[in-house]
Prior knowledge:
single chain, six-stranded antiparallel barrel, alpha+beta
Amino acid sequence: xxxxxxxxxxxxxxxxxxxxxxxxxxxxxxxxxxxxxxxxxxxxxxxxxxxxxxxxxxxxxxxxxxxxxxxxxxxxxxxxxxxxxxxxxxxxxxxxxxxxxxxxxxxxxxxxxxxxxxxxxxxxxxxxxxxxxxxxxxxxxxxxxxxxxxxxxxxxxxxxxxxxxxxxxxxxxxxxxxxxxxxxxxxxxxxxxxxxxxxxxxxxxxxxxxxxxxxxxxxxxxxxxxxxxxxxxxxxxxxxxxxxxxxxxxxxxxxxxxxxxxxxxxxxxxxxxxxxxxxxxxxxxxxxxxxxxxxxxxxxxxxxxxxxxxxxxxxxxxxxxxxxxxxxxxxxxxxxxxxxxxxxxxxxxxxxxxxxxxxxxxxxxxxxxxxxxxxxxxxxxxxxxxxxxxxxxxxxxxxxxxxxxxxxxxxxxx
Length: 414
């Protein structure tokens, strides 16, 4: 009997030890390396992680002093059940930000910084198919910025240089995955029209409809979409040279179904120039506002990621005209991991009116703000193709950080 009891205790202890190790590793990799809090606020982590922040004594001063001081930072140790060390994190004390939460539809007119290679097409030359660009090492997704030392901004710029080369080699400067590369391209004389060709298709601009997430009247900066504008053919981020935003009137909604995403239908209001695009990045599009007239919304504080709870929330979006409305949603999952800057939450649409009219999340709703407990917590970014009632969302904290970078660059330029 004693032997059986000892064996049981041993097995139980081994299971518990394994579970503790698994929980420790899960929490270590699921939780980020840094958090933000406002002055006077303590760091609290969702109870589902079973961790408690404990002062390491390595703060600039102690934790309570850091919490009360300006622009302070300090270290804390996260411990499982307050006992088992998981990881150390940086806690940054910042001012609580407040922005106007929008849900306003806007039109985007964007020109690329260089021209994006979106396709390749062989050239028939002396009866044989050749591709000069491919032979020069240029690939779909590359961005051509210079030809023969001259900046190229449009499709026409590329066409003129290639067609006017008389078959002479053209030097090309291009970018791939952030790296600047150089090559020489030898245009081929087309049998079809006797003109010189490079064998590529390029794109220099794009336009579309999105939703503005927030506007900071004090800085004159806005944030929207919650994800980058990417080329429809290559999926590559389109580098921004210049761009404008204008008002949009939503005229209808194509309802989403499983396997077929829906979309907002609307038209640009050309007379409502709203502002200028300054950045197209992973977390969204950002810029300055010159005409705030079409923007509707109310001021709210921006929530820190650790304040967001799984449960009820609201999405603010526009399905008709230019007037945004609130709809009920459920935050099903919150992911703190820093490796997914645009897919921080899983959102489920629960509002009967929104489900009836749109079927859930549709294209054009990207950037629609999410609010919970009177704070801006994030924005819708992607729809689940096979279940349009669900989608991903980004933390507002991530978008605000990008907006502040734009604010700083605009201030420095001025």
